[in-house]
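Loading example: each entry is read as two labelled lines plus one structure line.
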Amino acid sequence: MSAPDKRPILKLEKVRKVYETKGNLFGRGRGQVVALDHLDLDIHHGEIFGLVGESGSGKTTAGRLILRLEEPDGGRILLDGQDTCTLKGKALKAFRKRVQMIFQDPYQSLNPQISILDAVSEPLLIHTASKRTDRLEAARDILGRVGLSPPEDFLFRFPHQLSGGQRQRVAIARAMILGPDVVVADEPTSMLDASISAQIFNILLELREAMNVTLLFITHSLAAARYLCNRIAVLYRGHLVELGPADEIIYRPAHPYTQALIDAIPKFGDCSDLKRYGTLLRVDSEGAGSVSGCPFLPRCAVAQRLYCSQKNPEIRLFAPDHWVACYFPDLRKGESAAGESCYLSP
Amino acid sequence: MPLLEVENLSIGYHTRKGFRRAVEKVSFSLDAGRSLGFVGESGCGKTTLGMGLLRLLPPNALITEGRVTFDGTDLLDLLEDEMRKIRWKKISMIFQAAMNALNPVHRVADQIAEAMMAHSPGMQKPEAAQKVEALFQLVGIPKNRMRDYPHQYSGGMKQRAIIAMALSCRPKLIIADEPTTALDVIVQDQILEETRNLQREFGVAIIFISHDIAIVADVCHDIGIMYAGQLVEYGPRTEVFDHPVHPYTQALLASYPALTGPRARLQPIPGEMPNLINPPEGCRFCDRCPGATAACRREAPAWTAVGPGHHALCAQCR
C-alpha cells in the first residue's frame, strides 16, 4: 500500500490484542474481549493519521500498543523497520524518547503537586543529561511554541491554576519537548470546549510543521479528523474497515459502517454535497454472532447474508489509496442530501 | 400565552471568593410543543439556568431576581411542597450524567414505575408496570430487558431508560441537559431521532442544553446562545445560524470544524471568559471581541432586534 515517496515510519502487522475478563467469584462468566484483530496499518513520515471509531472499537488500544504501554498478543509493530515489541533496556529507553503520548484528560494526566516547569522538563531529566539552565531554556521555548506565552507566567504555576485548555497545552509541551518522531494524541480535545479545541488543533498543526513530527490522532469525531488528518482509518470492533485520504472517506465512504457514521453525524452548516446512505439496521439482526463472518454483519443493511457470514472480508483496494474491508463496497450509492435543509426540521 | 415565560432571571452562587453571578437577566419564552436550545461553553451558566427553572439548585445558590411563569403560575413563588408536585409531573428533566442517574440496586423498570406511582396516588403496581412497558416500547428498549438492572444496560439504553422516565408522567416540558454527551454518534443520532419523534407525537416542549452547536441545530426550533451568564443571541434556528450577528456567535461558529465544504482554518477565540465574581461593567465579551469600542467597555449593551424574532445583546450589531 505504500507508494515509493511515502515511507512508513510506523508499521502495524497483523496486530492482535485480547483482554481477559475475570468473571465472577466462582470463575463463571470468564471470557475474552478481542480489542484488536489482525490490524494492519502503515503510518507515513510526517503525516497526521486519524484513527476513528466508536467507543470499544479498539482505537485507544492501538495507541497504547504503539507506545508499548501494553504488549500485543500477536503480530508486530515496527518503528522504522525495527520491531518495537522485543526492545529491552537501553534500546527501549531510546524508543520511548522517540514516541510520546498526549492523553485525553488534562485534568488527570498532570501531577497536581508538580510545577509546570518540572512537569514539562521531566522528560529531559530522564532522557538527556542536560544542565538545569538548559532544561529551563528548553521548557521556555516549548511553552512559547504551544502558545503559553510569556512562558515566565506559567513556569512556576501548578496545574490547578490553569484552565483545561492551558493544561492540555502543557501536556502537549511535555510530549513535544524531546523532539519525538511519533506522537500519539488520544482524543486530546474531548474534554474541552469547541473554541479551545480549535486552539489545540491549530497548535498540533503548527508543531507538526515546525518539528516534522508524525501524529497519530485518535478521535471519535469525523469532523475533527477531517480538519487535521491527511489520512483516516475507521475501526469497528477491532477491525480496520476503511482507510483512505480524509476527504475521500467523508465524500465517498465505501464501507457501510463508515456510511452509517456519516449519516449519524448531526449535520450542520453547508452539507449539500453529503449523501444519505441508510446502511444501518434499526435493530441488530440475530444469529450473526459467528466468529468467521464480517464483524459488521449484525447491523449491516446491505449485507448478503450467505456471503458475508462465511468469512471476514479482507481489506482490499477500492480506489487509489482507498482501502475497504467489505464484499460489497459502495453498494449503496446514497441519495444526495442536496436541497434538504441541514437543520432537519423536527 | 406561552407555556413558559422567563423574565430577567438571575442566579448566583455564594463562594469563598464572593458572590458569583452565574446567570444574569435571562429572559425567554417557550410555546407548547416547541423546542429551545441553549448553547454555550462550560461556565456560561446553561446548566445553572436549567436547574434554576426546576429550583433544584444547591444550597449556596440564590435566585436574586426574575420570574418564571409556567402555565400561568410563578414557579419562584411556590412553596417547596407545591413545587414538588410540578416537578416530574409537569416539568421533567434529563440530567447531564444520565449514566449515573439510575439507582444500581433496583431494576430499571421498577424505578420508573416508582416515579409514576409517587406522582399519581392510587395507581397500582400492575397498572404502572403496563405503562412502563408502553414507555419502553416507545423509546425502543426490548420488553425482555425490563427486569434487568442498570449495569446490564449499555450507555445508550440507560439514556433511553432515562428518557422513558422523564416521559412517564406525561410532562408538558422536558429540560434536557447534555443528554447525549457521553454517547457515540450512532447512538446519539438515535436518541435525537427519539427526541424529535416524542415532540411530534406528544407535543412536549423541550429545553435542550448543550455545548455542541450541531446537536442543538439538529433538534431545536429556537436557539439561545449563552456567554458568561448572559443570553447574548436569541432567535429561530435558521436566523441565528445563517445570519449570526453577535460576535461571540460568529466566533463560536468559526471555531467549529465542519464535515464538508472548504477546509478553512479554524479560528479559535482568543482570551478567556471574564470572572463572574466581578464581571466587567460593559459588554462581557468586549475583551475578546474584534469590533469592541470604548463605549462597549463602558456601558452594558441592550437587546437589539436584528431580524424576525431574532435579537442580540450587542451595541454594534444594528
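The longest strand of chain B covers residues 18-30.
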